[in-house]
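User: Show me an example of a complex going from sequences to structure tokens.

Assistant: Sure. Here are the input components:
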Amino acid sequence: MTKRRMFLRMITASLLRRRSRMIIALLSIGIGATILAGLVTIYVDVPRQMGAQFRSYGANMLLLPQDGATLNSENLAEALTVIPQDELVGAAPYRYVRFDMTLRQQSFTAAGTEFEQITKTSPYFSIKGRYPEKTREVLVGKEIADTIGVKVGSGMELTYQPSSLQSDLTPEESRMANAILSGSAEGWSAGVVYVSAQLDENAAITSVTVDAGTQTPEYGGRVPEDADFMAQFVGKTLPLTLGEDVDALSGATVTSAAVVEALNTARRTAAPAQPRTVNYTVTGILTTGGEEEGYVFISLDDMQMMTGEDKLDVAELSVSANAEQLEGYMAAIGAASDAVQARLVKRVTRSEAAVLTKLQALVFLVTAVVLLLTMICVSTTMMAVVSERRREIGLRKALGASDGSIRAEFLGEGLFLGLLGGVMGGILGFVFAQVVSVNVFGSSITFQPLLLPAAVIVSMAVAAVSCLAPIRRAVSIDPALVLKGE
Amino acid sequence: MSLLELKNVSKIYGELKALDNVSIHVDQGEWVAIMGPSGSGKSTMMNIIGCMDKPSLGEVLLDGVDISKESSKHLTDIRRDKIGLIFQQFHMVNYLTAVENVMVSQYYHSMPDEEEALEALGRVGLRERARHLPSQLSGGEQQRVCVARALINHPELILADEPTGNLDEANENIVLDLFAQLHKEGTTLIVVTHDPEVAEAAQRTIVLEHGRVAREIINENFGK
């Protein structure tokens, strides 16, 4: 038998055959390790836990158009790819437009949005009724509902009055901004060709429709179906000249000329775009306690249909990440896109960081206190063990044990206790953290595989440090004194 | 040839002279008893011979080496290598079995060897009780384990302090028989006792009184 095996045999015998004593020492280390491991797990997990909590207080990042650019569904989706999917809780786009309410001659702000995203970014929205689920349904802020007296199920007629007052356009252009034109001209053999065109806010043509029913089917009649011919008009500004701005469809020159002429005629008689009125059904009344109560909310699809534009004013994002990561995403979005810029909602991100810091400081403090208490407890227990074993220590010395051997034996027992206590603490600590997490934060935590070795190492270190004073006492025992007499 | 020699040894605690200018010698292979009433300096002498204490004055030669001025670390080494100790209260490690207790002595001396330890237990008639804990052994059995533990490293000197003080007569005889055997094998024995019967088993008795050697008695009947 080697010395090492005898050493282990003595230590295990000491722990196993003196069970009642050692269980107390083991419990003090084990309970200490349990609380420590639990607290550390919570400490590590708190940012994630609290992050989820904070997300219920609303968005922490905004996406806005950069100066001179337009935010739309396309570049929004592009910007969102910067943020990892599992961190993006929700992204609610908003388009704000003034709407009129036809019957009451009132106007108010309507927001086009995606209701599914709102439930994620603004979980505090309180709805009487339900969110709109299909087109032509509207969610009405409580303030408006009270003013105009609508209830869930009421009908509500909303009117969009296209704004024609764009400052960088000439008076003529501004008159035509967003206008829908219609006109007619004579084509082949005195048949009338009807044309209508939709203009955008810069008075450029976005689409053209032609009715050439009076023209010979195999010649001029082909004009509306010829995609190349029709596509020439998009993006052009009136008036147009045939052969310069647009080319005639071969074999249908007269009809082509009639289309151009009809458009030019229509331009002269252009009236501002017609207001669009749509009848909505109220599905819910919104209470938030904030300014949202002064808005009506419709789906983004409805908004695009009403205004004829794919345009967003802002997107509210709820991202489960710390302030540092958010700064990173903000910079990345700015760098990746010419059109989109990101901003942090400082009041949310700052208070989140402040609360986290305080909470972590608290857990850290409690951890330190528990560590100290554990050490005191283990040290006291080991001190009692040394007193109780004075004779045995004296005997070992009389048998020739050096001070080093005595140190090694007690340290060995301490480390063995630390090992057992650490394994116990690592496992029970996770259970403890899980219970705390479920009861306090309402969500479970993931097991950190590093926790077990860490708990073992820490509790062995704690046990070793706690044994220093008892070991010093053991070494100082004089065999002649303790072995003598009765 | 003397194994142990005390030359003018005194141990002074303040006013009290526990040992007062004592000179004795013990030859190699000799069996000596040290007798005296309590307070006569027996324990002090036993501690000094057992390298657990140092004299205030005088020289202690063990195997020709003066141990009176050695550091306590060195004394530990000397005790481990040369001396086997037996106590009145037996003193066993209470959570180790009989054979493990014997092996503890081997462990500090050199290498634990279970076979050898079992053999030593066999010598004191306790081979079958080797796996018992001290609490499962009688006093006599415990003291026999201690004898086995004292002889396991083949010490030059076995120093026994009242080895039969806590034993009944039957067990006392067993222990004295074991001493006689060891003596025959050439082991030097010093037995501190206040029991005249135990002293009579030795070749020579040194009587201490008030820290001095009062007289020495040669046992004429030894070995008869």
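The lines above are the inputs; the final block is the predicted structure for all two components together. Chain B is about 35% helix and 30% strand.
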